[in-house]
Amino acid sequence: MLQRYTPTQILILLAIAALFIWQMGILRGGQLWWIIGLVVGITVHEACHALTAVRLGDPTPRLMGRLSLNPLRHLDPVGSFLILVAHFGWGKPVVFNPANLRVDPAFGSALVSVAGPVANLATAFLAYQPLRAGVALDPIAHAVLVGIVSANLGLAAFNLIPIPPLDGFGFVSGLLPKPLAYQLQPLRQYGPMLLLLLVFLPALGGPDILGSVLRPVIANLTKLIMLG
After folding, report:
1. Which of 5, 15, 87, 95 could lock 9 by a disulfide, CB 3.0 to 4.6 Å apart?
2. According to the model, what pLDDT value does residue 186 have?
3. Which residue is catalytic, options 37, 41, 46, 198?
4. Domain ranges of the chain
């Protein structure tokens, strides 16, 4: 979807959306810093998918311009707008060809899948170090770092869920025996709808199943980076 827009058009769309949401008051009260952290997290996440695929032998992400830390290379317009509106969104998936990988295609695909969440954990860890060391920071810098830490931990936990199209599914299916992985492939058709249902179920008056799963995972990941 992103390829239909030039970087300038995407920047204009995001600026208009941000102005609209700001006028609505959604970005006030510290939420802006979390959204900045989410944009950073999505950029690093997708760029590391691309880097892993290229390092394993597939030039496709590099040829498509995805080997970059420029957010405009990775943000999807609709997903970006939902980040502003609902604090839920997505980046443009990195396309790669498993047949080009120098390792077993299934195992290589698993490595490409897990690279995104691992990159988010590394980003959260690095952003936490100035906070951990007690470095004197102005309030904005402190808020940005907190936003980067929390958003990246959330992205890592969310993407590790083994539901397609999340990375957890790609990682697990890549490590399973091929007959079992093949049997799981039909889930790709229904995974996105199931995921959306889980995300919006609390807003519809249902139980917060996703939150009950993610909260302990995020808590443990937080302990992990604090011990690092």
Report:
1. 5
2. 87
3. 46
4. 2-227
CA torsion 176-180-181-182 (nearest 10°) is 160
- Indicate if 203 belongs to the active site: no
DSSP reduced 3-state for 51: helix
Residue of higher predicted confidence among 126 and 28: 126
For 194, other C-beta atoms within 10 Å of its C-beta total 12
Matching residue, tokens 């290229």 = 54
For residue 72, the 8-state DSSP code is G
pTM: 0.84
Residues, the chain, total? Answer: 228
pLDDT tens digits, 156-194: 998 999 998 899 999 999 999 999 999 998 888 888 888
**Which two tokens mark 158?**
């969310």
11/225: higher pLDDT: 225
Query: Nearest Cα to 96, choosing from 149, 57, 38?
Result: 57
